[in-house]
Amino acid sequence: MTRTPPFTSDVADVGVAATPSSGATQVGPLDDWSIEQVVASFSSLPTWPLGDQNARRWRVEGARRVLSWLAEHPGRGWQERWVNSGADAGVGWIDDVIAREASTDPKYRRVLTHGLTFMLLARVVVPSYTFLTAYAASHLLGYVRQTHRPDLFLQLEERAVALEAPMRRRTEALSILSKLVLHTGRDLDQLTAEDFLEFRAWVKQRGSKYIGGSHQANLAWDLVRDIAGLDGPPSFRDTLRTGQRSNAELVGSYPIRNSDIREVLVRYLDQGRPQLDYSSLRRLVTDLVGNFWADIERHHPGIDTLRLPEDVAAAWKQRLRVITTKDGTTRPRRGYLDVLARVQSFYLDIQQWALQDPSWVRWAVPSPIRRGETDGMAKVARQVSAEMHQRVRERLPRLPALVETAERQRAFHSGLLELAGAAAVGEEFVYQERRYRRVEEKAFIPHRYRGQAPPNVTVSDLDARERIDVTRRENTAFWAWASIETLRHTGIRVEEMCELTHLALVSYQLPDTGEIVPMLQIVPSKSNEERLLLVGPELASVLATVITRLRRQNGGTVPLTRRYDPHDRVLGPPLPHLYQRRRSWRWETISYSGLNRLLEATLAESGLHDATGGPLIYTPHDFRRMFATEAATGGLPVHIVARLLGHANINTTQAYMAIFDEDLVRNYRAFLDRRRAIRPEAEYREPTEAEWREFQQHFQARKLELGECARPYGTPCQHEFACLTEMILGDLTPC
Q: Contact 700/681 with Cβ under 8 angstroms?
């Protein structure tokens, strides 16, 4: 049966995406039994690990004493008495029971704990996670796996071995499942997704120092998902993601007090949502609801109309100009004019809609953003473009050094992994003039599982006195190299690279020659326009190396993984993604933050610095701008570059391209040479004396028009500042 206790202390609102369980506690039929009935039932459970005669006697006696103590507290059953007595909050009450009995027997505590263990296994009470953590009885969790569906627990252990999960995580995942069984009063095949969310909420509330954290809950979910028939995505992490929220939910995330204003904001978003992607929609909500109206209500409470007084609008604009950080410091807001433009569009759209829909007439009021207040957007755009160009000018000349570092790191760690993997544990070897020793991975693996889950290759650098996980280092170096090569050879966006799959490699037959060329199909991303890129030899080598690696690590096939799009908040279908790697027991696509960490690791090894002496930082989008600049300066027409980048407007492409001074001189000279080559040779004859004299006279007169004359510099001349008008009227003659 299900009973709701008077209070629950385990679940709190800690910002978990999904809703935790309601707090209803599952209790067994022993909840309403008497003490003697409960104790007598222990002997009818022959499959339990009762131990010898003394152990059985201790457990029965200890359970009777604990139940007698609980009977002194109010409640309809043992569960309510357990909660009302405070026993569920920790283990301090055990000392109180010992003190009350005034027992001097050193075995008395063991008697009580033996009896308590038996009560928990019999589900007389269902404990909280707080109690189980404080109780810290490892033997209790082992008894759970022996008494409550041991066949399912054995199946889980075998599946964990098949996944090649690290032993430490396997042990903690099984401990979490044992605690779920104790806390919920249900067996493994009866657990629900809400049970996992409740456990994670408790972990988040207690902090990250808890040993069995949510990372182990991910493995526990993967192990029990098929057995329990859990609803939802295959990964526990994916169940925590909110997905796309409705407009009402997006607006409701801000404290808008006035219900009418809240309804207007939701209606406005409903009108514009079909034309916006989800990322742009959330940015609009942030500016319109968070930075505008929520700020208005917070500083000027009581306003119930969109018609803002002049002083209120002026105060809001002044606050909008700066951003206050958590430490109290302020900095200018870069997107100030963008917020003004969105608020202005909000008012102008309502005014336009009011002409056709009378329901908008009430809200059609003058905009607090006056004409001319957003005129600086073009200047800001030019400043942003200039900053991007400067980033390209600073990073493009140093790109070869970054590429060389990535290639060197990949080759070094690949060779070290191959040599270390062939060495025996404890064996010393030399690699590139450095001494190493193969050491054993710090992970305990039972004898029955050894050989089924090979640990990472670990060595000790004897020269640097450093312990190195070579497998992890090689994995980082390889994917950093593959990412840099793909970004610089294609110019694709980072989300487009993360979405690349094995299916994106297609063949195209040239209509003229019939030649088959490889093409890379870029799936719709920001612009929702699919395009094809020609795969050059360098890029083809990189992609072939990636595919070969994935196949080798996955038994001959590219793994099927589901990618979560953080912009659109959707989980994609299982696809053979190219940029994925094995993380412990799971295959996961490389995230944006993971890609940035790969770049940072390579940059740290390269030693590149900017003009100020600080470390030079590359972002994935910098490679896109450098690709556009290299393509244009290499002679590729701008409109072709725009097609390669997926730009609908050529002006966007031109803003990406940075022109170097030497490129300007070189290309202009090349233009003059090409023009001279196609012009008639007669136009390049030597001038006659008369023509040259006429030219010199014209040049001298030109100097006079500009306020100069032919006299040497510094000599007196009455025509030094002569006006052009006088020259035209003939009042002056050359000196």
A: no
Q: What is the SS3 assignment for 610?
A: coil
CB 145, CB 153: distance < 8 Å: yes
Question: pLDDT by residue (tens digit) across 470-511?
Answer: 999 999 999 999 999 999 999 899 999 999 999 998 888 877
Give kind and range of the element (H or E) at residue 565: strand 564-565
Q: Any idea what the Cα angle at residue 509 is, between residues 518 and 497, rounded to 5°?
A: 30
Give the three-state DSSP class for 201.
Answer: helix
Are 266 and 248 in contact by the 8 Å Cβ rule? The answer is yes
Contact predicate 484/579, CB 8 Å: no
Grouping H, G, I as helix, E, B as strand and the rest as coil, residue 18 is coil
Write down how long the chain is.
735
443, 444, 447, 453 alpha-carbon torsion, rounded to 10°: -30
pLDDT digits (tens, 9 = 90+) for 208-262: 544 444 556 788 888 888 777 776 677 777 777 778 889 999 999 999 999 999 9
* Interstrand relation of 428-431 and 434-439 (parallel, antiparallel or unpaired): antiparallel
Instruction: Tell me 289's DSSP state.
Output: I
Predicted local confidence at residue 571, as pLDDT: 85
Q: Is 492 exposed, middle or buried (0-12, 13-18, 19+ CB in 10 A)?
A: buried
User: For residue 501, what pLDDT is reported?
Assistant: 93
Buried b / exposed e along 521-559 (16+ C-beta atoms within 10 A): ebbebeeeeebebebeeebeebbeebeebbeeeeeeebb
Name the DSSP class of 681.
G
* DSSP H helical ranges for 324-469: 336-354, 377-395, 399-422
CB 479 within 8 A of CB 579: yes
CA-to-CA dists, residue 529 to 521, 631, 640, 644, angstroms? 11, 21, 15, 11
pLDDT at 416: 93
Number of neighbours of residue 663 by Cβ within 10 angstroms: 14
Name the phi and psi angles at 233, rounded to 5.
Answer: -70, 165
Amino acid at 272: G
- CA separation for the pair 711, 709 (Å, rounded): 6
- Extract the runs of DSSP E, i.e. beta strands, from 566-633: 570-571, 580-583, 586-589
d(CA 195, CA 186): 10
% of the chain exceeding 70 in pLDDT:
80
Query: Could you tell me how far CA 149 lies from the centroid of its own chain?
Result: 38
Mean local confidence (pLDDT), 501-524:
84
Q: Is 281 helix (H, G, I), strand (E, B) or coil?
A: helix
Cα three-residue angle 609-614-617, rounded to 5 degrees: 65
Least confidently predicted of 115-129, 159-173, 224-238, 558-572: 224-238
pTM as predicted: 0.72
**Higher-scoring residue by pLDDT: 292, 728:** 292
Q: Is the dihedral of CA 448, 453, 454, 460 positive or negative?
A: negative
Encoded tokens for 575: 């696809």
The end-to-end CA distance of the chain, in Å, is 116
> pLDDT digits over 265-324, tens only?
999 999 999 888 899 999 999 999 999 999 999 999 989 899 999 999 999 999 999 888
pLDDT single digits (tens) 171-221: 888 888 999 998 988 888 888 888 888 888 888 777 654 444 455 678 888
